[in-house]
Amino acid sequence: MTDDDTPQQLQFGWEEWISLPGLGVPAIRAKVDTGARTSALHAFDIETFGPQSKPKVRFTLHPIPGREDLVIPCSATIIDRRDVTSSNGEKENRYVIQTPMNVAGESWPIEITLTNRATMNSRMLLGRQALKDHISIVATDRFMQPELSYDVYHSARMRHAAPERALRVAVLSREDNYSTRRLVEEGEKRGHTVEVIDTTRCYMAINAMAPEVHYDGKRLPRFDAVIPRIGASITPYGAAIVRQFETIGTYCVNGSAGITASRDKLYAHQIMARAKIGMPNTAFAASPRDTHNIIGLVGTAPLIVKLLESTQGKGVVLAETKKAAESVIDAFRGLKANFLVQDFVKEAAGEDIRCLVIAGKVVASMKRTGADGDFRSNLHRGGTAKSVRITKEERDTALRAARAFNLNMAGVDLLRSSAGPKVLEVNSSPGFEGIEKSTAKNIVGKLYEAIEGQVRPAPIRRRKGTASQD
113 and 232: one domain? Predict the structure, then answer.
């Protein structure tokens, strides 16, 4: 409206250019139909979400006829459901939303029903409710208001002009634990749809033209983002599922390559060595003849002997003497287990630092102290945690370690040694309970901020060589 709220007289032809900024639609052609009460907008993949008290609807639309590669994801609050009879006599129950419509610098709210208009020439129909009293219709003319252009969908400004929208997020997890529950709780609090998907119940359709992920007999819908919480026991299959989502084009918080590399302790140490990241002296050998030499490469006792498949402190042994180290190594070899031998950093005194890295920033850090008599500081083994201030060198080390594995979210475990910070491990599925409770920070909220920055608003794709249509 104008500044004094007095509507100016507008003339509409039988077709006009309008914009729907609340839905992220800067330009669309609308056919004027005074015989219809409510306006109608082309929509597909329509689905509801949110609380029952205030339900919302997600949908996508192709604003340009014949351009199915151009997709606008939208979301809005549902204000009604109505039976609508089309011109050919078919009755359809439609969701009704309300959103502002802009024409010639004026804006007013209109009601819109959502329906698939793929077979129609016009992607939108303007009904009587949208036209108001100050609009007169000239049925013999068209485009009496300023013309817009579909070129706007290919401009750099389009990404920044689009509104915030609800996201559909998948959490790949087999466990109902604190971290999974927090991801659902925080996502829904921010207005998103969050679904927990059991990784092992996913299966894949692998083909060049239409790669898909299926679950419980159905193709999974399009997700805006995937948060992998892949357990160590299913790393290969979990990484394959993440890789399939990557193939589809879904944003994955952590990629399959980073997850796989961080889980392979031998490969992980090689990656960190190549990136010149400080870590305890480490050695690996497959032959039993090399027991004496492998101990010599690391240093003198006490030593740490660590299974390559160890998690949460399991399979990690402190050998306080050379003889004890040889006995542990022989025992692991007898079980045909792969292991590393590492120098024991005495000055760490059973403590380590967990740095939580999200989107290239250390968002929180805690000091973990092992239970009495235990050199391992894992919280799962009775350790305690408290918030800690880290040094610039420790912060830089944590960031470099996460970057070496190309992880957008990582738990980097450091030891404080006399020679500077030493990285013990980079975890691609860090837990949130210990660090949220010890630091009193909303870590999961930080993660969603990073996800929203990546996938909302969604990028607009354009086929190579396709010209804009007017």
Answer: no
- d(C-alpha 92, C-alpha 82), whole Å: 8
Residues 225 and 310 in one domain: no
Q: Which residues pair with 58 in a beta bridge?
A: 47, 75
Give yes or no for residue 36 having a pLDDT over 80: yes
Quickly state the pLDDT bin for 2 (edges 50, 70, 90): very low
**328 assigned to some structural domain:** yes
Question: Could you tell me if 226 and 308 lie in one domain?
Answer: no
- Closest to 366 measured CA to CA, from 258, 280, 438, 306: 438
Which pLDDT score, from 0 to 100, does residue 240 have?
95
Assigned domain for 5 exists: no
**DSSP per-residue letters across 287-351:** -GGGHHHHHHHH-SSSEEEEETT--TTTTEEEE-SHHHHHHHHHHHHHTT--EEEEE--GGGTTE
- Between 447 and 467, where is the model more confident? 447
> Which of 161, 186, 215 lies at the terminal end of a domain, its last residue?
161
Distance (Å, rounded) from C-alpha 446 to C-alpha 394? 20
Which residues is 10 bridged to in the sheet? 135
Which of 161, 194, 226 terminates a domain? The answer is 161
Is 69 contained in some domain?
Answer: yes
Pair 16, 100 in one domain: yes
6 pLDDT more than 70: no
How far, in Å, CA of 206 to CA of 191, rounded? 32
Residue 216 domain boundaries: 168-262
The reported pLDDT for the residue numbered 463 is 43
Question: Average pLDDT for residues 156-161, to the nearest whole number?
Answer: 50
Top-ranked range on mean pLDDT: pick from 22-26, 222-226, 375-379, 434-438: 434-438
Whole-model pTM: value is 0.68
Please state the domain count of the chain. Answer: 3
Nearest to 165 by CA among 17, 61, 52, 40: 61
Could you tell me which of 237, 271, 446, 433 has the C-alpha nearest to residue 354?
A: 433
Q: Which residues 6+ apart lie within 8 Å of 232 measured at CB?
A: 263, 309, 311
Do residues 104 and 149 both lie within one domain? Answer: yes
465, pLDDT greater than 50 = no
Task: List 339's β-bridge partners, or say none.
Answer: 307
Distance CA 388, CA 282 (A): 27
In the structure, what pLDDT confidence band is assigned to residue 438 with cuts at 50, 70 and 90?
very high
